[in-house]
Design brief:
Layout lengths: L1 H8 L1 H25 L5 H12 L3 H13 L5 H9 L2 H27 L8 H29 L2 H15 L2 H12 L6 H22 L12 H26 L5 H16 L3 H8 L32 H15 L3 H4 L12 H5 L2 H11 L2 H9 L1 H7 L6 H18 L2 H4 L8 H9 L1 H11 L3 H30 L4 H8 L2 H20 L1 E6 L6 E6 L7 H45 L1
Antiparallel strand pairs: 1-2
Helix pairs in contact: 1-2, 2-7, 2-8, 2-10, 2-13, 3-4, 4-7, 4-26, 6-7, 6-10, 7-8, 8-11, 8-20, 8-24, 9-10, 9-12, 9-20, 11-12, 11-20, 14-27, 17-26, 17-27, 18-24, 18-26, 20-24, 22-24, 22-27, 23-24, 23-27, 26-27
């Protein structure tokens, strides 16, 4: 108790809490930047298919296995009930190390022509464990951001951290180009080693994480300026990777580019370093901060109607009912108040959750499946030489999409718009991109479509955490968000199966001989626009369904957002007048 009081009141304690939370944010940025190992699957998928001698359909099942690990994401929340954060982080790294090292080991033996047969179910299992480790890393980062920042800045911290996950493929491409640019299996080795290395590097900051730091009174003006600086730095990092990460370079040049990227990734350390040297008073009241903003259990938008006058509550409540009860469809299961905690049972009975689930299932998940198939898509369209550039485009645009998910928080004082409305707007480019590639299957359309899909899916991936917190409660996010992302393995299986069936139906059986091992195998190879034309059309129709679902979600939840914004404004005015 005494330590808590000192941490809140003492100048030194306040400064300590200030630099700790920024150090934790930098640590989550590093973890997210180097643990998105599922995004580089397309870089080695063709080599994996050739080494294992499997069909496109069987390869699709391996991609699904990685996504299937997310269906067991709830286990990370369970682990956090019995284990400290740093132990869960290291266990995540150990799972990833074991899974990717096993895949790399299998390929080495197969390529060496050893008399060994790797059972397909075993490969499937290690891919599943690899996907599970990614989900555990994400949960650790979410919890760290929620514990370290108050409600006003929590969504900004989450968006910034999640944004860097979109750059994982670009970072891994730089590492691969620097080490061995013509060996696809090097990605598996990097997937095994880098997450462990960054976990150990981030461990000191996580060990210093104090759950009570989120109780500290923040200075919205000061914190927003810091976040704005961090977002600008993140934008520069993304531009750097777009410009330099998409070129095929020599090993020495790649090392130079990689060094520059690592320097940019380390620059955010300036924030905790400067916070420890110069103390900012984060304990006094701020004129622009609503009362009670330091409560870490609050939703991302203020909605505690207990502090309002009865007239205000009745007015907003009546407005909600009038807008939400226009008909049976708009009334049943409608979210009445932002931040209300939903148990798992209550969640699956909520109509808004299923609209949200459908929008994610028919939106961002399709974009993820597209990235998994990007290697085969580029190969079939004779764009194999541009695969590195396409991966960099998808990764960078996904990153910028994730950065853009912070717009609602930066613009909330100037433009009040429901976060679910931003979600619907972000889904709009997705069907446009697939119909564009269906109509014009050439290199330019492929690049443009990849950019739009990366931008759209990236925004949804980052915004989804904040939307889940607002609609279904911040305290339940560990369980509820993992229930939401169960759509990813389902979509990966369904959409990947569609792509595989179309690919195999239009392909030809060819006998392929590995020059290094002399092993001869027969596999289906498809070349030309016909390989993915039907797939692009079907995926475009599916994402259109997601767009419609997101619009319905926006219309149903808009009254709750308006009511929450009204209450927040009243609190602000009352606080200023007093």
């Amino acid at each position: 108790m005494m330590m808590e009081v000192v941490g809140r009141r003492g100048g030194a304690g306040g400064g300590s809490g200030e630099w700790r939370r920024w150090a934790v944010l930098v640590a989550t940025v590093w973890i997210q930047a180097l643990t998105g190992t599922n995004f580089d699957f397309s870089a080695y998928s063709s080599a994996l298919k050739s080494s294992l001698g499997i069909s496109q359909e069987a390869l699709n099942y391996l991609a699904t296995a990685s996504d299937l690990g997310k269906a067991f994401g709830w286990s990370s929340g369970l682990a956090l009930l019995y284990m400290p954060l740093h132990a869960v982080l290291l266990l995540s790294a150990a799972l990833g190390l074991a899974a990717y090292a096993a895949q790399y080991y299998f390929i080495l033996f197969l390529r060496a022509g050893a008399a060994i047969t790797v059972p397909y179910p075993l490969v499937f299992l290690v891919c599943l464990i690899a996907g599970l480790s990614i989900c555990w890393f994400n949960t650790v980062c979410f919890v760290l951001c929620i514990r370290s920042f108050s409600a006003e800045n929590r969504s900004l911290a989450l968006s910034l951290s999640i944004s860097f996950n979109g750059l994982s493929a670009a970072f891994y491409t730089l590492f691969a180009n620097a080490l061995s640019p013509f060996t696809p299996s090097v990605y598996l080795l990097l997937n095994a080693m880098l997450p462990l290395a960054v976990s150990i590097l981030a461990l000191p900051a996580i060990l210093l994480c104090n759950p009570h730091d989120s109780h500290l009174h923040g200075m919205p003006k000061h914190d927003r300026r810091v976040f704005l600086g961090l977002y600008i730095l993140a934008f520069i990092t993304g531009i750097y990777l777009v410009i330099f990460g998409s070129f095929n370079t020599t090993s020495s040049t790649a090392c130079t580019i990689l060094t520059g990227a690592i320097v940019l990734l380390a620059l955010p350390l300036i924030v905790p370093a400067s916070s420890s040297c110069s103390h900012v008073d984060t304990h006094g009241p701020d004129p622009e901060s609503p009362a009670n903003h330091d409560d870490p259990q609050r939703p991302l938008l203020s909605n505690n109607h207990q502090t309002e006058s009865g007239g205000t509550v009745r007015k907003t409540g009546e407005y909600q009912q009038q807008d939400c009860c226009c008909g049976t469809i708009l009334e049943k299961g409608c979210v009445k108040m932002l931040g209300e905690e939903h148990s798992a049972k209550k969640l699956i009975q909520c109509v808004d959750f299923w609209l949200y689930y459908t929008a994610y299932f028919c939106g961002a998940t399709v974009g993820l499946v597209y990235s998994n198939n990007l290697g085969q898509i580029a190969q079939s369209l004779h764009q194999q030489s541009r695969l590195t550039m396409l991966l960099a485009v998808y990764s960078s645009c996904s990153f910028f999409g994730r950065l853009l998910s912070a717009l609602p928080d930066f613009l909330h004082r100037k433009m009040s718009f429901a976060r679910t409305g931003w979600l619907a707007a972000a889904l709009l480019p997705m069907p446009m991109a697939f119909f564009l590639m269906w109509k014009w299957q050439d290199g330019s359309a492929l690049v443009a479509g990849t950019a739009l899909i990366g931008l759209s899916s990236g925004f949804i991936f980052a915004a989804a955490v904040s939307v889940t917190s607002e609609l279904f409660g911040p305290n339940s996010i560990g369980v509820n968000h993992n229930i939401l992302i169960t759509n990813i393995p389902l979509g990966s299986l369904l959409y990947g199966q569609i792509a595989a069936l179309v690919y195999d139906a239009n392909g030809q059986r060819m006998t392929v001989t590995d020059n290094r091992t002399g092993i001869t195998d027969t596999m289906v190879v498809c070349m030309g626009a016909k390989c993915y034309s039907t797939t692009f059309f079907v995926w475009g129709c599916i994402t259109f369904v997601g767009l419609v679902s997101s619009i319905a979600l926006f219309l149903r939840t808009r009254p709750a957002y308006i009511a929450a914004a009204s209450r927040s404004s009243c609190k602000h005015l009352n606080h200023v007048s007093s």
